[in-house]
Amino acid sequence: MANYRVGRVAQEIQREVNDIIRKRVRDPRVQGINITDVRVTGDLQQATVFYSTLSDKEKDVQDAQAGLDKASGLIRKELGQRLSIYKTPELMFERDESVAYGNRIDELLRDLNKD
Asked: Above pLDDT 70, what percent of the chain?
């Protein structure tokens, strides 16, 4: 039962954080960020929010992380008002490297096909 709840909360957080970033966070550094996954600890105290960026440039990635870190208080506060759970989890933002990895593979395959 607990695993189902953790999964449900993770999905809800993913949906809401995506919405909050689009509608409430005014920081230009977080424009174009997409939340790809959320992992919540079993006790619902912490949530790791994975995101992808449109750009793979190091500076853009660092800016996005800085923007998310700065907005995390607002995001968590807003999330607390939207979620129907007792305590809003602490949020940690982490870049989803699998998306960048997949893009790189696509790029390499395209290059191979050019020859």
From this structure: 97
